[in-house]
Amino acid sequence: IGPLLRYLAHPTVILPRTEMGGLVVHEANSCGSAVIATKTGGLMNSVIHGENGFLTDLNLEAVKGAICQGLDTEWDRSYLMNRPLNHTWKQQVNYYLTVLAHTSSV
């Protein structure tokens, strides 16, 4: 494959300490890219470990391992691109309402 396609075939890496929603996962998947993400917030609901990406702890060895695993995995790009079509705004709003209810009770 050409250099551009090889670049596009790499997973998207998302390493925040906190993340309220997981829309970035759906955006990456819709482009055919798997996601390597930290185990935080909405990312844990959006990344199905091994299916559309990998979840990792936020430390150098864990991130390195997840990126290597993501690069070595043969991802089903068609599946990744169609996966976000099953995501609805209603699901996202319900998630935000759950988070807000939890944080307001703390």
Explain this structure:
This protein is mainly α and 106 residues long. The protein contains six helices and three strands, in the order H-E-H-E-H-E-H-H-H. The chain has helices at 3-8, 23-30, 43-46, 60-72, 77-82, 89-104; strands at residues 12-14, 35-38, 53-56. The chain has a three-stranded parallel sheet with strand order 1-2-3, with helices on both faces. The longest helix has 16 residues, at 89-104. The relative contact order is 0.17. The model has no long low-confidence stretch (mean pLDDT 85).
The percent of residues in helical segments reads 40-55%
User: How much β-strand is present in the residues?
Assistant: 5-15%
- For the report, how would you describe the main beta sheet? 3 strands, parallel
User: What is the chain-wise order of helices and strands?
Assistant: HEHEHEHHH
Report the uncertain regions: none
Please report the distance between the alpha carbons of the first and last residues: 51 Å
Return the average pLDDT rounded to an integer. Answer: 85
Query: Over all CA atoms, what is the radius of gyration?
Result: 15 Å
Give the class from helix and strand content and strand pairing. Answer: mainly alpha
Number of helices: 6
The strand count comes to 3
Overall shape: it is: flat
The main sheet orders its strands as 1-2-3
